[in-house]
Specification:
CATH class of chain A: Alpha Beta
Number of helices of chain A: 8
CATH topology of chain A: Spore Coat Polysaccharide Biosynthesis Protein SpsA, Chain A
Largest interface: A-B, 43 and 43 residues
Helix content of chain A: 25-40%
Shape of chain A: elongated
CATH superfamily of chain A: Spore Coat Polysaccharide Biosynthesis Protein SpsA, Chain A
CATH architecture of chain A: Alpha-Beta Complex
GO molecular function (chains A, B): alpha-1,4-N-acetylgalactosaminyltransferase activity; glucuronyl-galactosyl-proteoglycan 4-alpha-N-acetylglucosaminyltransferase activity; metal ion binding
Cofactor (chains A, B): Mn(2+)
Organism (chains A, B): Cinclus mexicanus (American dipper)
Pfam families (chains A, B): Glyco_transf_64
Largest sheet of chain A: 8 strands, mixed
Oligomer: homodimer
EC number (chains A, B): 2.4.1.223
Number of strands of chain A: 13
């Protein structure tokens, strides 16, 4: 009980004022809290001129790549390779292009064997087409694509190095398999590898293509690929081949330079023989190489000219695997 | 004799007119001829933003390079090397920096043994300085410089290839001898080659310098070198060493990228042992490598930071000398 103190009118008003201000303060705090919760989250927008790429995982869009692997009738190889590739540093996500029409993907089994280092997305296709892997997948969040055939194993060391090279040559196809075209006196082009005659620009050989079945390239080229003449798609569908030659034409036209940069692989393996499916790749077909020469000439017609350019630059990793792999007699 | 014809006054005037007009025509022709001779010759000005580079020889300024070779006390090696280098395709001119103070150049003998494929200019020096070779020689007409030590033989094949690589990387030092610096826990830098620990960026080794004693670089860097802090010249003069380290600092600062691009030589030889002079290069001095570590730290002070960047790109020539030098088990 308060006597002399409580009876003063000022103090009574003081307590009422205190209550009032307390209520006001509490209401203000609640309002502030509500406003803070409603503020938009600040997104890490590194590339303002391109598609928004939210940093959904620990690696940003510039420092990582997306593996796109198309598969047909070799699920055992696919799963073996996924176990390897899923652990590559700087891998952001895997997109499996499922060309086994009507067959269930191994997604359930995949999930039951989790957790996995990165997300793997199975893109079910409706038609078994070679060019299915060249769609502009909305799942793509990175600037870089690593495209691999479903029977090719490239070591993590090679991939890490080639990715670093791609980052220095982002407008090129940076990969492990070089090929060339040559011109013949008749004006008809022929396609081949190093066993074919050199194009004759100085000594040594030249390459004018880097195959996309084991290569890094800019995801923007998948967008560009959707804008090509219909005849290109018809050619790829007719041959079920040559999508990689078409990509090299596209890139060469775009840059005005050699389309590819060849990185010499230390450890690259073809696992074809290891499959239980009995299925061997398209390149075993009798007409495979003839088709590719045919495609070169068709594409020259379609694009009204030969855009491919030669390069003789071969890139290796300094001091790896042998720390003195550059030593000389000096 | 003309009778009725000649007597006509009109005809007399006609002949006078004819003579007059003939004289006028002849005078006009002479004047025209004189004017034509006085017209300025049209110069092939390919690079309007740079120094005028008249096409004095069969190779233009962009497709050829100037060899700059400094020499001291090894004239027998110099002449042996000149016989080799003078025949390199795309060589425009040789500049010999004559550090044999007070000694006659072999110019007379050189001329008596002509003709030679390209001009060779002997630049007589007044003081024997390591950095004499880094002057901005007015004799330089090409964009590219090939700088070679006077005891180093590099094959024509290697040079042709490295020059083509330089043309694709004109802002870098493109050469055959990579070196690196490393950082130590104390913050003091050390200089070395592959026997030194790796800088620790991923696997394999890295290099952060390409020595200019066997390399191509842009002639503009000789201009830039004249604009460096006095302390840089003092350092090079004090050590009679490190001009190449200084150049790498300069280029790295200028580009913000690794200063050099390493091209793995197929055939590079040190001819030191072949000299009759009994003189061996500076690098045999006991303190040589210690000096170079010293220089790295001094230059970091002078430039207030470490501009050198690492690279692990090693470039070789595709299909040369072995046409299948890129073959793999696939």
């Amino acid at each position: 009980r308060c006597f002399h103190f409580c009876k003063l009118p000022g103090r009574v008003m003081g307590i009422r004022l205190l209550r009032f201000t307390s209520v006001v303060i509490i209401v203000l705090l609640l309002v502030a809290g509500a406003l803070t919760a409603l503020l938009p989250t600040i997104k890490d927008d590194k590339l303002p001129n391109s598609r928004r790429e939210p940093k959904t995982q620990s690696q940003s869009a510039l420092d990582s790549f997306t593996l796109i692997m198309q598969t047909y009738n070799r699920t055992d190889l696919l799963l073996k390779l996924l176990n390897h590739y899923q652990a590559i540093p700087q891998l952001h996500k895997v997109i499996v292009v499922w060309n086994n029409i009507g067959e269930k993907t191994p997604e359930e089994m995949w999930n039951s064997l989790g957790p996995h280092p990165v997300p793997v997305v199975f893109k079910v296709q409706t038609v078994n087409r070679m060019r299915n892997r060249l769609q502009n997948f909305p799942d793509l969040e990175t600037k870089a694509v690593l495209m691999m055939d479903d029977d090719t194993l490239v070591s993590a060391h090679d991939l890490a190095f080639a990715f670093s090279v791609w980052q220095q040559f982002p407008e090129h196809i940076v990969g492990f398999v070089p090929r060339k075209h040559i011109s013949t006196p008749s004006g008809v082009y022929s396609y081949g590898s190093f066993e074919l005659q050199n194009p004759g620009f100085g000594n040594g050989d030249q390459y004018s293509m880097v195959l996309i079945g084991a290569a890094f390239f800019h995801s923007g080229y998948l967008e560009d690929f959707q804008q090509q003449p219909e005849a290109v798609y018809a050619l790829i569908d007719e041959t079920q081949n040559c999508d990689d030659i078409a990509m090299n034409f596209l890139v060469a036209k775009h840059t005005g330079k050699p389309s590819g940069v060849f990185v010499k692989p230390v450890d690259i393996r073809n696992l074809e023989k290891d499959t239980n499916s009995g299925y061997s790749g398209m390149w075993h077909r009798a007409e495979h190489l003839l088709q590719r020469s045919y495609c070169v000439n068709k594409l020259v017609n379609i694009y009204d000219g030969m855009p491919l350019k030669y390069s003789n630059i071969m890139i290796s990793q300094f001091g790896f695997p042998n720390y003195a792999n550059h030593k000389n007699k000096m």
